[in-house]
Amino acid sequence: MRVGGQAIMEGVLMRSPNFWGMAVRTPTGGMDLRAQRFRSITRKNRLFRLPIVRGALSLGETLWLGMKALALSTNIALGEEEDLSKKEIAITLVFGLGLAFLLFLAAPVLGTKGIGALFGNSIENPILFNLVEGVLRIGIFVVYLLGITLLSKDIKRFFGYHGAEHKAIKVYERGEELIPKNSHKLDTSHVRCGTSFVLYVLVLSILAFSLLGVEGWLYMLLSRVIVIPLVAGIAFEFIMWSARNQDNAVVRALIWPGLQMQKLTTREPSDEMVEVAMASLKKVLSMEEEAHLKPDEATNKLVI
User: Fold this and answer.
1) pTM
2) What's the rounded Cα separation, in Å, for the pair 217 and 225?
3) Average pLDDT over residues 113-119
4) Computed from CA positions of residues 80, 85, 87, 89, in that sequence, does the dihedral angle turn out positive or negative?
5) Which domain holds residue 48?
6) What DSSP assignment string belongs to 40-77?
7) Of 9, 4, 14, 3, the residue nearest 277 (C-alpha)
8) Cα separation of 188 and 186, whole Å?
9) pLDDT tens digit string along 140-188?
10) Can you say how many angstroms the Cα of residue 179 is from the centroid of all Cα atoms in its chain?
11) Residue 31 pairs with which residues in a beta bridge?
């Protein structure tokens, strides 16, 4: 069974096919563990499971759930009980997407035009323009990660929980007992990490945007917003395919840059962090097992 997760404030969110769960360290040093059933939007309609389409939808779904869990975990970690409403989560998500638009779409486009103007001539060749733009976009991403790491100790702990999430999943995928000791021999990278996904989106966007032309800056920005879901869907298919074929030498070469990029977004976790990640994972796994063994009261069939 495939599982995934993400770091949250002082904890880890884990997802299985039918449930999501989160474990968070409380101010007193205890652990707050919560979980509930989860039905992906991609399971509600056949069309939503089509290649590429499922990737774009899964990305939006992951962002929404991640924002919800991050807000909840922050309250738990600070000892507060107030939960964000759907409206507040939506506003926060829109703000985050707006910031991403400015940093990773608007800034590279305007920056590339500025570079052309600096040398006294605009860059007219679409391939050259998007190559320069892509390099700027990746550079901004790396600088952004380095900047937030240097400026915040909380981010370093957050990245520690990111490493704990990866280690917990890798222990599970190896079929070993979910105890911190079994994670010591493993590194903090994972082939299906979101950091790798972002890098693949950035690289694939260079190819995709080259087909759009270099007309006015407004057209360039709008066309990129429209194409991004397609690029994200393709990146999703690639990351799933690479996870299934990571023993192949060519695949290992292709995913190597993404694994190296994860060194910026993960840190070696403490056993206490791994314990939290494994508690979250154990919770969703136990709920999956219970759901498969417990008959549905309405149909008297096994819940799947």
Assistant:
1) 0.86
2) 13
3) 78
4) positive
5) 4-293
6) -GGGS-GGGGSTTHHHHHHHHHHHHHHHHHHHHHHHHH
7) 14
8) 7
9) 999 999 998 888 888 999 999 999 999 999 999 999 999 999 999 999 9
10) 25
11) 25
**DSSP at 84:** P
Q: How far apart are CA 129 and CA 125, in angstroms?
A: 6
Q: Two tokens at 110?
A: 């305007």
d(CA 109, CA 105): 6
Is residue 214 within 8 A of residue 126, CB to CB? The reply is: yes
Residue 116 forms part of a structural domain: yes
Going by C-alpha positions, the residue among 144, 116, 133 that lies closest to residue 220 is 133
The reply to whether 299 falls in a domain is: no
Structure tokens that stand for 199 in this block: 């890098």
Q: Which strand (E) or helix (H) includes residue 24?
A: strand 19-25
Confirm if 25 and 10 have CB atoms less than 8 A apart. Answer: yes
Residue 37: phi and psi, rounded to 5, are: -65, 145
The total domain count for the chain is 1
Any domain includes 155: yes
Residue indicated by tokens 């903090």: 188
CA distance 232 to 97: 14
In a domain, 124, yes or no: yes
Decide: helix, strand or coil at residue 35: strand
